[in-house]
Q: What sequence folds into this?
């Protein structure tokens, strides 16, 4: 298997990807704005002691106080939080100390205002502060020094029993009295001199830490783990890695300097990237990162996983998807589950998911098939540097997995909570939003001085407020005894609405941004949905139907407004300003806003403005075609007598009971 580490360095961010046969299995991200605190050692001050929780909150200088549980407040022989899974050889006096200390309560150990030295084992996640322990660990290249405990341990990943015994004997000889040490996986095959040099370095670090703790005032940081490059060279760059490619000359030189001390044989494996294409694009990493943020993950066989993360656990559902097999159902299910087991182990590493993981594999008929799936999963998680435990099948046929959680998941690093749905993944429906607007209108209808409303909402919500043929809006106006203008704006979020109330003339002026006879320069955005010879432009989201402009889409034209309706206006091209003259745009073209009478869908029928008493209605500009109102679903209007016009106005005036729709593009 080809294993590579690819590192991308920017001024504000460093990213490192671990590839196995070209597939992304681990991703590390370090940003200057979000400093990593896991592994740091602090001198803190106890702020609260909670006997009911057997825990304390410690101020270590971060935004939130750190959480210290009673078992973590006792420096005992309990296995500390380190990346190595070890076998331990206890000392007799340490075992007796362990039994005595476990009888203590948090109140016996800590008091408010007390200074204490702690180490962060879990990053602050969400609303939770960091978790800290008093069992300190200082990692080196080959060893991990634990100054507060007394034992020697060897990584279980060193499988050879004789090699483990040899390293444990060396560790017992070189470790100081009353201190502990863990021999790391990379120490396999190293001689005692290499381990001794690493121990000297770690003891110097511990000595400087103690001196700083004695003179500094809490809260303060005493020891910070090294940056991403150093940690990768120290922990990840082993004999199993074929290449370490970095695109920064400064970091390349620094890696060479570090390896000159801790691993001279590995220096030739560090390569400086010099191509013009971004390094993550060159190795196909960016698309894999995007897929790692998706809920659905496709398998090689055609099946897929659905991954859902909650506060309590991670659930993974396995589905056959496009895979239909070739022999029988049992074989199809087995192959899908085997592919899913490999991909689940990879996704745990890649997304850095931790805690309780429940995998719902496709039901299998035989115990042998279930055993094969579990065996594959157990083999795959051995590649994971984070401690992962395969608990096994539950009584419901689910696979239970636990994985140590020390830092934020990948989606918590790269994504943020949706400001609209607040993380639930759903928003209010159009119907719910429209009904909420109606309730607000009824509430505000009783306010003094309110004669009309202008509602601005998403077009789909505006359509519901108007209703088929304007029926809902007419009903609403009758119930409120107010004039209501509805304006749709694609710029608004689906659940976002604004309501303007006031005098009728003032609201109408806001709702109708153009006037009869006005000359404007506009951009023809699209052809009319039912009459392609006409073009559609928008003024503050208000729709303008331009005659004979359907072929001028994308061009700037001069127009004159010839008719004004509540939902749209009619206009004609100004002949003195030909289309050729305005072929090159002079201003930036605004993004289109889809009105209900645009190609997104026809508007409900509307009533035109009534003519002033004593005047004849305006005839259509093109007698050979239906009037504009007819294009919107009405019959062409005929001249009416003054008596008929007065009767149609009713008690509410010319606009009482008519529909209203306009579109506003709010910038």
A:
């Amino acid at each position: 298997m080809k294993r590579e580490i690819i590192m991308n360095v920017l001024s504000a961010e460093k990213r490192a990807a671990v590839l196995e046969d070209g597939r992304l299995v681990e991703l590390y991200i370090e940003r200057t704005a979000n400093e990593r605190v896991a592994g740091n050692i602090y001198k803190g001050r106890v702020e609260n002691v909670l006997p009911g929780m057997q825990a304390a909150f410690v101020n270590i200088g971060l935004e939130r106080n750190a959480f210290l549980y009673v078992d973590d407040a006792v420096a005992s022989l309990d296995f500390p939080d380190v990346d190595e899974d070890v076998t331990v050889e206890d000392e007799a006096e340490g075992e007796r100390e362990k039994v005595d200390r476990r009888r203590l309560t948090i109140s016996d150990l800590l008091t408010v205002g007390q200074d204490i030295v702690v180490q962060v084992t879990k990053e602050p996640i969400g609303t939770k502060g960091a978790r800290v322990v008093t069992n300190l660990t200082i990692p080196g290249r080959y060893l991990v020094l634990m100054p507060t405990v007394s034992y020697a341990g060897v990584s279980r990943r060193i499988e050879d029993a004789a090699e483990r015994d040899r390293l444990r004997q060396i560790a017992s000889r070189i470790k100081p009295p009353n201190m502990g040490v863990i021999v790391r996986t990379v120490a396999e095959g190293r001689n005692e001199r290499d381990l001794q040099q690493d121990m000297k370095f770690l003891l110097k670090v511990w000595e400087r830490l103690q001196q700083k703790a004695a003179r500094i005032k809490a809260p303060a940081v005493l020891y910070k783990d090294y940056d991403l490059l150093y940690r990768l060279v120290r922990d990840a760059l082993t004999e199993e890695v074929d290449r370490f490619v970095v695109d920064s000359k400064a970091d390349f030189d620094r890696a060479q300097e570090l390896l000159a001390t801790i691993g001279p044989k590995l220096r030739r494996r560090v390569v400086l990237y010099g191509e013009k294409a971004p390094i993550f694009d060159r190795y196909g990493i960016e698309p894999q990162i995007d897929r790692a943020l998706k809920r659905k993950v496709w398998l090689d066989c055609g099946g897929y996983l659905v991954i859902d993360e909650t506060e309590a656990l991670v659930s993974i559902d396995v589905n056959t998807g496009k895979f239909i097999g070739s022999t029988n159902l049992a074989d199809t299910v087995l192959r899908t589950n085997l592919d899913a087991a490999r991909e689940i182990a990879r996704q745990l590493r890649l997304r850095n998911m931790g805690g309780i993981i429940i995998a719902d594999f496709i039901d299998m008929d035989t115990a042998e098939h279930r055993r094969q799936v579990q065996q594959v999963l157990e083999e795959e998680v051995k590649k994971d540097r984070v401690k992962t435990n395969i608990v096994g099948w539950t009584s419901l046929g689910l696979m239970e997995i636990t994985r140590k959680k020390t830092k934020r998941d990948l989606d918590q690093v790269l994504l943020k909570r949706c400001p609209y749905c607040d993380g639930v993944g759903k928003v209010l429906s159009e119907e719910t939003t429209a009904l909420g607007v109606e309730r607000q209108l009824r509430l505000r209808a009783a306010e003094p001085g309110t004669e009309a409303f202008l509602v601005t909402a998403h077009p789909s919500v505006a359509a519901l407020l108007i209703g088929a043929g304007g029926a809902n809006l007419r009903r609403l106006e009758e119930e409120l005894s107010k004039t209501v203008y509805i304006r749709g704006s694609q710029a608004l979020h689906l659940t976002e609405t604004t309501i303007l109330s006031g005098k009728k003339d003032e609201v109408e002026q806001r709702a109708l941004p153009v006037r009869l006879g006005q000359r404007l320069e506009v951009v023809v955005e699209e052809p009319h949905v039912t009459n392609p010879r006409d073009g559609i432009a928008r003024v503050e989201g208000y729709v303008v139907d331009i005659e004979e402009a359907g072929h001028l889409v994308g061009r700037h034209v001069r127009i004159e407004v010839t008719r004004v309706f509540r939902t749209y206006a009619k206009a004609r091209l100004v002949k003195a300003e030909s289309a050729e003259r305005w072929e090159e745009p002079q201003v930036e073209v605004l993004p289109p806003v889809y009105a209900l009478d645009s190609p997104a869908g026809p508007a409900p029928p509307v009533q035109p403005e009534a003519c002033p008493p004593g005047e004849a209605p305006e005839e259509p500009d093109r007698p050979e075609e239906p009037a504009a109102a007819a294009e919107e679903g009405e019959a062409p209007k005929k001249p009416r007598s003054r008596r008929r016009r007065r009767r149609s106005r009713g008690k509410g005036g010319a606009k009482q009971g008519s529909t209203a729709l306009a579109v506003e593009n709010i910038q």
